[in-house]
Design brief:
- This protein is of the alpha+beta class.
- The protein is built from 11 helices and 25 strands.
- The protein is globular.
């Protein structure tokens, strides 16, 4: 007779994207896999080159943690971070406790555990969330050299301000690393009016900088999705319906939608009905599939691939007298979101708010961090909003010299001399600004070059380049990237590893011109002569003397078509 019955359950976060600095920092990573790294190196990347700033390995990770305690405040770490635990709580109480705790609490506890294990194993093994905590240390080490840094550190200690403060800190140290004198300002000036968050100076000239973070709902959505999965799984097990349920929603989840989805699945289970369902209010479709009959014993291990963003699986595992494994009563829940995010309203609101903080007669830059899980899609987002934002600031917000969309992610396959973090910037300049930027000022994210001096409304560029041999872990790379210090002239070539060559050019009188070309037949790793010619809205590209055909899939992205799951496949087909 079968014996040794044990209950097995597990959850899987199917999204392995790393979280960059800012509002989604460290959230949703508790299920991430450990990464074995020799050491963590951070660099101050500036137009003048990259200088090593921090290096952590298993021999000094304990000291690094202690330094981070000192920078954040030992009392804060003891009361808000180190006291955090979910031991002894059920799932739903744990979910509520997580929502009420400081965003750094869970990742901090996990980093401490992984640090102890790394010291014992003499090998650094860290999850993505732990890597981000250590990168916060790198930022704070440089932040304390900037006058007024105490205000940002105080915001980091506050649960509701932690994420925006991370972005503000990163922006401040980026300008400081570029060699400028930076001062972090108080939130209100002496006259009681709100002011920008920092000012960048050289001599008697100055530029104000304002940082905005588009509100990120990913941590809240992760908690709601986990709650939905566990609630549905428990009801199915209670009714002995051993099904695979796939939930696909196109709207953000709320408490009411969770209740409606759970009730629909429960009604289906009572009726033993496996037909598909659709809930109109939350635009949610539900598919059902029977895995096994009640109390049916299935030989082998219980393995079900879960392809959505989140999945939970449970089964009872049994060994018979001969040691043969069976499973029974399996249940799997899979949740996938396909939420359409319109970034333009949020960006417009941030621009309007920032414009009111800029003093009369001054120049200013507004840095906006996009929602973090979309950081790797910053080019696609820029395609959707660039011209609308440019028209807005040129018409209504002439105090703003440029808007900079920002994103960051952990760099895959980084080399020892490369920054572990990949920062992405899209500069949207304002040619109609009332007060021009000082000649010496270079916006973070610009790549000045003399070749831009002759860039006009029409012209041609010819140069030699070598295309990459694709790597499956990378999305692609810039073959040429030249952006003037004020962002008013831009020229970029991006090679994606789905065999697409993307040309992007910007001139104040021309606007933004983007063209993509299929070059799947081009030999990788070889030198090529490229000629890019444009006039008005027309452009043509010649590769080794032959005209390239424009890629039909490279049409300008629209807000209506941009979705969280609309991620291009950058691996070679």
């Amino acid at each position: 007779m079968p014996q040794n019955k044990n209950h097995f359950s597990g959850t899987q976060n199917c999204s392995q994207e790393a979280m960059p600095y800012g509002q989604g920092l460290l959230s949703g990573l508790e299920a991430g896999q450990l990464t074995v790294v020799k050491c963590i190196r951070c660099f101050a990347s500036t137009p003048r080159g990259a200088n090593a700033m921090m290096e952590i390995d298993h021999s000094n990770i304990a000291a690094s943690l202690d330094e981070l305690r000192q920078l954040l405040g030992r009392e804060f770490c003891k009361e808000q971070l180190e006291s955090y635990t979910l031991i002894g709580t059920n799932f739903f109480d744990g979910n509520r406790l997580e929502a009420q705790s400081h965003p750094l609490a869970g990742p901090w506890v996990r980093l401490c555990q992984e640090a102890e294990q790394s010291v014992r194993d003499e090998c650094l093994e860290l999850s993505p969330g732990s890597i981000w905590v250590l990168l916060l240390l790198d930022v704070l080490q440089r932040l304390v050299a900037i006058p007024g840094y105490e205000r940002i550190v105080e915001l980091l200690r506050q649960r509701d301000h932690f994420y925006p403060a991370c972005f503000e800190a990163q922006t401040a140290v980026s300008y400081h690393d570029a060699g400028y004198s930076v001062e972090i300002l108080e939130e209100k000036a002496a006259d009681g009016k709100k002011t920008c968050e920092m000012v960048v100076r050289r001599g008697n000239e100055k530029v104000y900088v304002e940082c905005k973070s588009i509100k990120d709902y990913s941590a809240e959505q992760d908690r709601l999705i986990r709650e939905l999965g566990n609630r549905v799984s428990g009801r199915l097990r209670k009714l002995k319906r051993h099904w695979h349920v796939k939930i696909r929603t196109k709207r953000r989840l709320y408490g009411n939608s969770l209740n409606a989805i759970s009730l629909e699945i429960e009604n289906k289970a009572y009726a033993n009905d496996l037909s598909d369902s659709y809930i109109q209010d939350s635009d949610t479709s539900i598919a059902f599939k029977k895995i096994a009959e009640p109390d049916q014993l299935v030989p082998g291990s219980f393995e079900v691939p879960l392809d959505g963003e989140y999945g939970t699986a449970s089964a009872e595992v049994i060994l018979d007298d001969f040691g043969i494994q069976y499973y029974s009563n399996p249940t799997t829940i899979e949740v996938e979101t396909d939420v359409k995010y319109d970034y333009l309203p949020s960006i417009r609101g941030d621009i309007r708010n920032a414009s009111q903080k800029i003093p009369d007669g001054e120049s200013a830059i507004v840095h906006i961090q996009i929602e973090l899980r979309d950081a790797k899609k910053i080019t696609k987002i820029a395609d959707a909003v660039f011209e609308d934002v440019r028209a807005l600031i040129e018409r209504d917000h002439k105090r703003i010299n440029a808007v900079v969309l920002c994103g960051a992610s952990i760099r895959n396959n980084s080399k020892p001399d490369e920054n572990l973090i990949n920062f992405e910037f899209v500069i949207i300049p304002n040619k109609e600004a009332h007060h021009p930027l000082p000649p010496w000022f270079e916006i973070i994210g610009s790549y000045p070059d003399v070749m831009l001096d002759g860039l006009g409304e029409e012209g041609e560029l010819e140069f030699r380049l070598r295309t990459n041999i694709p790597m499956s872990m990378q999305r692609g790379r810039y073959l040429q990237r030249r952006i003037s210090g004020h962002g008013l002239r831009q020229f970029q070539i991006w090679q994606s590893f789905s065999d697409v060559l993307r040309f992007e050019i910007f001139h104040p009188n021309l606007g933004r011109l983007v063209r993509s070309y299929d070059f799947s037949q081009v030999a990788d790793g070889a030198d090529h002569i490229v000629k890019f010619a444009w006039s008005g809205g027309n452009a043509v590209v010649y590769l080794d003397g032959e005209q390239l055909e424009e890629d039909a899939s490279s049409q300008r992205a629209t807000l209506a078509s941009f979705t969280r799951n609309d991620i291009p496949d950058f691996t070679r087909r």
